[in-house]
Design a protein that fits this description.
It is a single chain. The chain contains seven helices and no strands. It is mainly α. The longest helix is centred in the middle third of the chain and has 31 residues. The protein is globular, with a radius of gyration of 17 Å.
């Protein structure tokens, strides 16, 4: 039954306007291309890996929501869910890029630590799905070998707004 619902969701997505998926797809394809470019620096590829994993997680949770048999979703509900996924994808991309920019600008180790803490805290303090599998969504969170030490279960819109407010001193 679940396979039938998933197939129905995918079928509906196929008839949704293409612009409803452009942002997500563009970011995913760009990140995946960087990830698979063996000429690219390893640290850049690791950032791309985080983006791909965050987008894959976001897409999986979106598909689960769309195939939820306890809800009867109308086409406009499906469009809203896809639009939210696109918005989350955009803000995740912006969040990671802002982090890299600010982290790279920092001259002193203490500044780098403060930036890392601010972005890590925002990513964990604003969950989107309230995932119960904490080990999974925190796979990057405590990894010293990854610069992007963020939770996969993040409301990227809210986390982005929070770090920008903090950077403005609000």
């Amino acid at each position: 039954m679940k396979k039938i619902l998933l197939f129905a969701c995918l079928s509906i997505m196929a008839i949704l306007p293409c612009h409803a998926q452009k942002v997500f797809n563009a970011i995913y394809e760009s990140s995946n291309k960087t990830l698979n470019d063996t000429k690219e620096d390893v640290s850049v590829r690791k950032i791309a890996l985080f983006k791909v994993d965050a987008l894959t997680y976001l897409n999986t949770k979106t598909m689960e929501e769309m195939s939820d048999s306890t809800r009867e979703l109308k086409p406009e509900d499906m469009m809203d869910i896809i639009a939210r996924r696109d918005s989350q994808a955009y803000y995740m991309y912006d969040y990671v890029n802002l982090f890299i920019k600010e982290y790279s600008r920092a001259k002193k180790e203490k500044e780098k630590e403060n930036i890392m803490k601010m972005f890590r805290d925002a990513s964990i303090n604003y969950p989107l799905f309230n995932e119960t599998n904490r080990d999974f969504v925190l796979a990057y969170y405590n990894r010293d070998d990854f610069l992007t030490q963020f939770s996969l279960d993040t409301d990227w819109v809210k986390a982005n707004a929070a770090v920008r407010r903090k950077m403005r001193g609000e």
